[in-house]
Design brief:
Elements (H helix, E strand, L loop, with lengths): L1 E5 L4 H12 L6 E2 L11 H14 L4 E6 L3 H7 L7 E3 L3 H11 L3 E5 L5 H13 L6 H11 L2
Parallel strand pairs: 1-2, 1-3, 3-5, 4-5
Helix pairs in contact: 1-5, 2-3, 4-5
Length: 144
């Protein structure tokens, strides 16, 4: 399952991604907001996605805010969540390959909608390189 959410700064990009990914057969669960709420807080929406990923770390999440930092900071407070802010497809692929990220944070005010779509597609297509050194590092993270 892929969960997606944003605050007001990422609302437009979230709606764009849902529409364009659905047209490619990639379904997402929109955890809100359903309508633009100009004074909402990113923490409330990041919490919803992080809890879903914490319940099942095999699921994926996408969070969007102004610069992507706030939502990734919030999400990473949950055990089992590995959120990473990415701004280009190569970086996003690296976070999946090397670190098995399960939440992608996007900076709505610093990338175009088309760039965001490419980033998400690449992130979703990239598997974790399940080799000993990477697994060892994730175990160290999980032990904290």
């Amino acid at each position: 399952m892929i969960y997606i959410s944003s605050d007001h700064r990422g609302f437009e990009l979230k709606e764009y991604l849902i529409k364009n990914l659905a047209s490619k057969g990639i379904a997402m669960v929109n955890l809100g907001p359903e309508v633009l709420v100009p004074d909402d807080d990113y923490t409330d929406y990041a919490l919803l996605v992080a809890k879903k990923i914490q319940e099942n770390s095999q699921d994926k999440g996408i969070l969007i805010c102004n610069n992507g930092a706030g939502v990734s900071i919030m999400a990473n407070r949950f055990k089992g969540v590995r959120a990473s802010l990415s701004w280009n497809p190569q970086h996003a692929a690296s976070t999946r390959n090397d670190d098995d990220t399960n939440i992608l944070a996007l900076p709505a005010n610093f990338i175009s909608a088309d760039e965001a779509l490419k980033i998400v597609e690449r992130w979703l297509q990239t598997p974790f390189e399940n080799i000993e050194r990477r697994v060892r590092r994730l175990k160290k993270l999980d032990s904290l």
